[in-house]
Amino acid sequence: GENVEQHPSTLSVQEGDSAVIKCTYSDSASNYFPWYKQELGKGPQLIIDIRSNVGEKKDQRIAVTLNKTAKHFSLHITETQPEDSAVYFCAAPNDYKLSFGAGTTVTVRA
Amino acid sequence: EAEVAQSPRYKITEKSQAVAFWCDPISGHATLYWYRQILGQGPELLVQFQDESVVDDSQLPKDRFSAERLKGVDSTLKIQPAELGDSAMYLCASSFRVGTGWGTGELFFGEGSRLTVL
Asked: How far is B37 from chain A (nearest CA, A)?
């Protein structure tokens, strides 16, 4: 099955700075890479995803980059705000099953 | 906005007791998932349904866990008997019919059922 590793496990940034989270995956056939955000007491929610036919995708202050050769993808959050504080999970599929990374707890300091 | 409904939100039980969790997916979503999330870890897939059929239950501890989706709509996850190590958040998610090529597409998660086994 797919093995997804996520780093770092915790990340503290000053408000306004950027945050970067990296994930690696093992299954070279994986072709869809979503990122989920989980706020306290809630279920994860999709914030951005990328498919293997593109190398980068942006949505306002968040972006995801994909390097299929190296089998890693990253989440970039620019101009961080207090509401960005949450746990972020990367994921990758093995056919129809989605495997999640262990998560990164992001804390934005005011 | 349509949401995945789960109940109960919190459950405290003693070991060896039976517990059950219920999930009502977003209307029209053919695929339903039960994930277990241990504190500080990512969600781990327990069972995946396509309509009323089990697509994958390879990580479901079948000696004590069971799941059903009889009419292809709502679903129940049962644990009997509960063990201390079962303490976790049980997340239900749903998505449109899963095809091939682009994996699962977007999963919509409920708020989860937090289980504490004493």
From this structure: 10
Where does residue B96 fall: left (phi above 0), alpha (psi -120 to 50 degrees), or beta otherwise?
Answer: beta
Average pLDDT over residues A6-12: 97
CA distance B38 to B93: 16
For B:3-62, CB contacts with A below 8 A are 4, 40-45, 48, 55-56
Q: Are strands A10-14 and A104-109 parallel, antiparallel or unpaired?
A: parallel
Q: What is the pLDDT of residues A10-30, one digit of tens each?
A: 999 999 999 999 999 998 888
Q: CA dihedral defined by B59, B52, A41, A58, rounded to 10 degrees? A: 90
Could you give the CA distance from residue B24 to residue B6 in angstroms, rounded to a whole number? 6
**DSSP letters along B7-64, please?**
E-SEEEE-TT--EEEEEE--TT--EEEEEEE-TTS--EEEEEEETTEEEE-TTS-TTT
- pLDDT per residue over A53-92, tens digit each? 889 999 999 999 999 999 999 999 999 999 999 999 999 9
Out of A43, A49, A97, name the one closest to residue B56 (CB): A97
DSSP B101: S
Cα A23 from Cα A7, distance rounded (Å)? 6
